[in-house]
Amino acid sequence: MNAQNSINASATARTAIPDDKDMLRAARDLTKDISEARPLVYWSDMLGSAAVGYAALAGAILVDSVPLAIVLGVFSALVLYRALLFIHEITHIHKNALPGFRTVWNLLVGIPMLAPSFTYEGVHTLHHARTRYGTAEDPEYLPLALMKPWSLPLFVLIALLAPPALVIRSAILVPLGVVIPPIRKLVWERVSSLSINPNFRRRPPEGDLKKRVVWQEALATAWSWTLIASIFLLGWKPFLVALAVLSLTAVLNQLRTLVAHLWENEGEPMTVTAQYLDSVNVPPPGVIAEIWAPVGLRYHALHHLLPSMPYHSLPEAHRRLVGHLGEGSTIGKANHTGMWSLVSRIARSTMRSN
């Protein structure tokens, strides 16, 4: 009973955290000169990651050596994971900052991996809404630290099913939805977004997003049919190897999601500072975080302060804020040492709360 009271008190204290106005002011004033996206960085990083990832995937499919195929497959999953996470930048970047970037990314990465940008656009921004974060209306929040201990491994392992589920969605459910409106409504509301809140229901698309959904869905369906047809032309190996690589990528992303926040809010609205402290930075000197949280996501808490800051500027923004405010200030309280320490913390919290 005392442990449960302690957890409840901690959650209540977090929602009652007032905004640190010095931190919010510094975040605004000290980063104005690094707030523009640098096209060369974005294009070279995304195109290079996609090219290397697909080359490694081709190698994993073509080589006869099983150990070498595994090495190439793991490497491909890591590099394609980096390419895939540019979907996060596409959601936040100003639409005129990188002309053509969204379209090219969709053609080279989003559609081949059956995760077009519409699955994140119009959804992820709800996670950043001042009054939605951590509430039942947040599509990307679950109080994982307050749930049953078995929910954590289930949360991670269910990602293994994501790639085959995406194939089924695009190859079967989307075409059925074209002729059967109730299926179309169900698919859009329930399985058209990269969200983790099972109670989230997506609203119909509007404006430019509605147009993008049409062509992205059409191409994703055509690609999914091509993948299935390849089984009859090339055999099972290429399809299964690609599916295994994408499953590994999905699990890695789910692990990153698991440690992106402390997940200690029970559904009450939070101040911006409370949201920051419920989120996670894993700054240097460690280098491993750049592998499992690439494209700026190792600074996830800072991203909640500066959601439109381009990923290549986040390390410098963090350095400036820590230098100005000090490690002992609020800005330093969201810093953590790595994935496993965060997993352990969340796991211990589930045990105490239960």
From TrEMBL:
Residue span, Fatty acid desaturase domain: 67-324
Pfam families: FA_desaturase
Domain of life: Bacteria
Membrane-spanning intervals of the chain: 40-62, 68-87, 154-180
Cross-referenced InterPro entries: FA_desaturase_dom (IPR005804), Fatty_acid_desaturase (IPR012171)
CDD domains: Membrane-FADS-like
GO molecular function, one term: oxidoreductase activity, acting on paired donors, with oxidation of a pair of donors resulting in the reduction of molecular oxygen to two molecules of water
GO biological process: lipid biosynthetic process
GO CC, alphabetical: membrane
Keywords carried by this UniProt record: Membrane, Transmembrane, Transmembrane helix
Designated name of the protein: Fatty acid desaturase
Species in which this protein is naturally found: Pontixanthobacter gangjinensis
Source taxonomy: Bacteria, Pseudomonadati, Pseudomonadota, Alphaproteobacteria, Sphingomonadales
